[in-house]
Amino acid sequence: MTTAPALEDSTEQDCCTPAVTSVLDAQTAHQRARTFKALADPNRLRLLSIVKAGSLNGTCVCDLTEPLELGQPTVSHHLKILVDAGFLAREKRGTWAFYSMVPGALDAVTETLLGL
Amino acid sequence: MTTAPALEDSTEQDCCTPAVTSVLDAQTAHQRARTFKALADPNRLRLLSIVKAGSLNGTCVCDLTEPLELGQPTVSHHLKILVDAGFLAREKRGTWAFYSMVPGALDAVTETLLGL
């Protein structure tokens, strides 16, 4: 997740349509939308909530299925999206995978919002 | 958009599964996911960016189609989602509708993130 400036400098100033020169470019908008899409699911928000409240050493995937009343494949699917989006880190220990928050990941999203 | 506490108090403390008692409840998770879903689209992020950078008196819908290279119906569809999610306010003046940021709306999302 990057926090690139939302407002692009323009070499051509047009006094009558200032908003047009400030539009978020398409590529950056796509990247940011992908981040928000990872958060746009109630089960993924609940998973983040559990992991955030859990041990700093990580929360075992075996403790994530019961509170959500979802099957292991569904939980794993949502966890993969959260890992790919940079919110969660995954560490395999023996049989189980443990998930922990990526430090600063939520802060980066808030900066993205404020930088819109 | 509310900023209800993410961590629910539990009357039953279970030392072995602390994360379970902290899970975001399903209803709150659904509400928050809907907010993030409104942000999970590149065109909506670009619209927010333009309106945020525009006049405090609002940006005419007639100035929102060209920078996004989208048709009026598509832009209106996205604007309605942003209004319904509480990010934009809509004011009709004569023929045109003008859109402005709802004060504090983005701040409320950042509080939601930090309160996960």
Most extensive protein-chain contact, per-chain counts: A-B, 43 and 43 residues
The CATH topology name of chain A reads: Arc Repressor Mutant, subunit A
What is the straight-line distance between the termini of chain A?
A: 14 Å
Estimate nothing, just give the exact number of structural domains of chain A. 1
So how many helices of chain A? 5
Q: Name the average pLDDT of chain A.
A: 84
The oligomeric state is homodimer
Q: State the secondary-structure class of chain A.
A: alpha+beta
Description:
The structure is a homodimer of 116-residue chains. With 116 residues, the first copy, chain A, is of the alpha+beta class. The first copy, chain A, has helices at 26-39, 42-53, 65-68, 72-84, 105-114; strands spanning 59-60, 88-93, 96-101. The longest helix of chain A has 14 residues, at 26-39. The first copy, chain A, is elongated and about 45 Å long. The relative contact order of chain A is 0.17. Chain A binds chain B through residues 6-7, 17-20, 22-24, 26, 29-30, 32-34, 36-37, 39-46, 48-54, 59, 63, 66-68, 106, 109-110, 113-114, 116, and chain B through 6-7, 17-20, 22-24, 26, 29-30, 32-34, 36-37, 39-46, 48-54, 59, 63, 66-68, 106, 109-110, 113-114, 116. Chains A, B: GO terms for molecular function: DNA binding; DNA-binding transcription factor activity. Chains A, B: Pfam families: HTH_5. Chains A, B: It comes from Arthrobacter alpinus. Chains A, B: Residues 24-116 form the HTH arsR-type domain.
